[in-house]
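Hi there,

I know you've been waiting on this one. I reran it after we fixed the sequence typo, so this is the corrected version. Both the input and the resulting structure follow.
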Amino acid sequence: MYKNLEAEMVRENVSRKDLAILLNVRYATIIDKLKGRYSFTLDEAFKIKNEYFPHLTFEYLFEVEEQTT
């Protein structure tokens, strides 16, 4: 899970749909990636960071919090 990324999306008013459009993927794919079912590729992660969060570090945005089940 990408809690920092999702928190910053809320702060900056960036929607999941915005990410889907930016990365040219289905909305459901973004949901799966944000929930940790699949990982963002390095290219996708840099594209998100550069487009919407240039003021934040890559490490902070894409810090992964392991799911506990």
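Quick highlight: Helices lie at 3-12, 16-23, 27-34, 42-52, 58-61.

Best,
R. S.
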